[in-house]
Amino acid sequence: MYNQELVTIIVPVYNVEQYLPKCLDSIISQIYKNIEIILINDGSTDRSLAICEEYKEKDNRITIFNQKNQGLSSARNVGLDNAKGDFISFIDSDDFVAADFISELYTLLKDTDSDIVQCDYIQVEEDDAVFIPKSSSFRTEEFSAYEYLQRLYSKKIYPRNVVVWNKLYHKNIWDNIRFPLGKLNEDEAVVHYIYDRATKITVSSKILYFYLKRSGSIMNVSPDMEIKRYLHYLETLTQRSDFFELKGYSELKEETLAQKGKLVRRIYKKNKKLDSSLVNYDLLICNYNRLVYDALDENIKLYLKNRYIKLKLKVRLLYIYLKLKYKGNLSHSIE
Question: Which GO terms describe its molecular function (predicted)?
């Protein structure tokens, strides 16, 4: 049995009055007691702040920070800037965790001398009863930083490998690393930096985190917002590729470029499925075309040389590039 070191749990809060009590109940009921709970109210316009204050009255481990709406990245950064714990965990305010979420991850981290540990999760729908498969056994796997970076694009374990919320971290892993402000896909923007700092990452198959898929989630977005999400993800992949080049990870750089090529193809296919009855249909088409063309114009030669991109996709990317270059409507630029 280890001495319980302080663990900081960071919870960004924005207009989640319907889900917040369940989230906070699961946190204050943790078997592991030595925790500080940082709630960052990001300009909520519903009762979320009032709920935070009610829970603070009941539990002195809770600290509330209140700010104007600046987005998830800003809220998480406030938590990181004010964390006093030796270890860090993130929980989204519409999700909830098992009572042994922290205790299991903390014990695993200490037992394996890891810098980051990860549990499994299940996705739940609103008002669904949670069913956890009965199993007394679960497996753990240990990885070096590079080995885990090689799993970034694994569809088999997605999204476990690209989110920050199902993990426990040594606090020093986050030194001088913060989430980018004003960007979507904020987890993807930092995970490669975080993983690269770890000496060892241990993954458990035990289900300890419950991810709520709700109607107002980022997956249900307008076409304009979807374009912005694609743009930000392309930027993230570019920055990641540059980082891997700086580190000398040539294979990871090539894989990242291939991932970018696949994303460009996916964006183009999405463009073709736009509803022509949309009021701003012509503008959306222009913006999608511009997004795809710029990504191809920058990298088409690299895509054609990339050994992780299949010949069929290379031909398709070249076709799209030439079509947009000579016949595409590119009169608008993306802001």
Answer: hexosyltransferase activity
